[in-house]
Design a protein that fits this description.
The chain is α/β, with parallel strands linked by helices. It has helices at residues 40-53, 68-76, 91-101, 114-120, 138-143, 158-161, 166-173, 183-200, 228-235, 273-276, 287-299, 310-317, 324-331, 353-363; strands spanning 6-10, 13-17, 57-61, 80-85, 107-110, 123-128, 145-155, 204-214, 217-226, 238-243, 250-253, 262-266, 308-309, 337-339, 346-349. Strand 14 and strand 15 (346-349) form a beta hairpin.
Length: 370
């Protein structure tokens, strides 16, 4: 007997979900089985990502709730065998119903504590998307990841990671968060730093394939690299930051000192551009949005000093901001620059701050030179 609920459609998949569920913003637990419609973009990216992997995979969705992500992967990605796991007995009828609704023979439900599941089984791809912080579950997810496996992790505790609840960030992630315009990129890089440190405990390293901030969460997909050498190489990409909100001066350091007190952060790349170039948004639930983000990710410049924001620069020099697209084009005549996916008003550049400020001043509408 199917549980009570309503049928929605995401991509090419029908999903039975509880009648009462989250629709907008950060999800709230309503009833015994969680579902958030706004996370459809997150699920879209999972489908895009796994299609781009291009090989047969065993997949574990560790905390699947209704099974929405698991059944979409099973239904929309070729060559996968999916385990849809949840510790809640109330979730299993929804998972089984969604497997049946979509006539899936490559997806099975699992009613396990994820810690015991990954103590006994390993998978090519492990997806960890808990309600709140992933920290208590990362080690088990690593254990469940096979050699050369892929680990996908979501964090929805945005406020601590972005510095609004700094004490909680220190407690959970052992990192000093950054405030101001860089807070969300900083939060993403703190999450990635935490994963890197946990992997190193198992003599494993990581290669980020795709990492982003959207809506109310952080998300990273990493290729697990095996061996002590890979672990050491990964740890070398962690570091600390100095940021002066008054002068906009910022710099990074491999070790903390009196100035470089923020972090540690992951200072390596957020994305693997070759991998992202293979991702395709065709047929997804939020196809237009997926295409927009793909364009941003494919062109995003990786810099150790994180992003700048048009509002930050305008406030600093007391001049009106130009159109960001025009300004990024202008900067590319003097160095390298790109828009950032984190915010529609943010950009990245390798141009030093002492050169960037006069360029911004010259290009501002108030200069009369445009």
């Amino acid at each position: 007997m199917r549980p009570d609920g309503i049928l929605i459609r995401e991509g090419s998949t029908d999903i039975l979900v509880p009648r009462t569920h989250s629709v907008h913003g950060p999800g709230k637990i309503q009833g015994s089985v969680f579902f958030n419609e706004q996370m459809s973009f997150n699920r879209d990216v999972s489908v895009m990502f796994l299609r781009a992997v291009g090989r047969d995979l065993t997949v574990a969705d560790a905390m699947t709730a209704t099974g929405s992500r698991a059944v979409r992967i099973a239904n929309e990605v070729k060559g996968v065998q999916v385990t849809a796991n949840d510790i809640s007995a109330d979730a299993i009828p929804y998972i089984d119903a969604n497997i049946e609704i979509n006539n899936l023979d490559n997806c099975v439900s699992s009613h396990r504590n994820m810690h015991s599941l990954f103590a006994e089984n390993t998978f090519d791809y492990v997806d960890l998307d808990p309600f709140g912080s992933p920290v208590p579950f990362i080690q088990s997810a690593i254990r469940g990841c096979r050699r050369k496996g892929i680990l996908a992790i979501t964090a929805t505790d945005t406020a601590p990671l972005a510095g609004a609840h700094a004490a909680k960030c220190r407690r959970r992630y052992q990192s000093e968060p950054i405030r101001g315009f860089m807070c969300h990129e900083g939060g993403l890089r703190i999450l990635m730093c935490t994963i890197a440190k946990e992997l190193a405990k198992f003599d494993r390293g990581m290669k980020p394939l795709l990492s982003f901030y959207a809506d109310h969460y952080f998300r990273t997909y990493i290729q697990v690299l095996d061996g002590a050498e890979a672990a050491d190489s990964t740890l070398e990409k962690l570091g600390y930051m100095h940021y002066d909100m008054e002068t906009m001066e910022r710099s990074t350091s491999k070790l903390p000192d009196d100035e470089h007190r923020l972090g540690p952060f992951w200072l390596g790349p957020l994305h693997d551009q070759e991998f992202v170039s293979r991702m395709d948004a065709t047929g997804l639930a939020a196809e237009k949005r997926c295409r927009k983000y793909l364009d941003l990710w494919r062109n995003e410049l990786d810099t150790e000093v994180f992003l700048y924001d048009m509002s930050e620069l305008s406030s600093h020099i007391k001049m009106s901001p130009p159109r960001i697209d025009d300004f990024v084009d202008f900067l590319n005549q003097h160095g390298k620059a790109s828009k950032s996916h984190v915010s529609p008003t943010s950009f990245k550049t390798d141009i030093p701050l002492e050169e960037l400020i006069p360029l911004y001043r010259d290009f501002s509408p108030d200069s009369g030179r445009q």
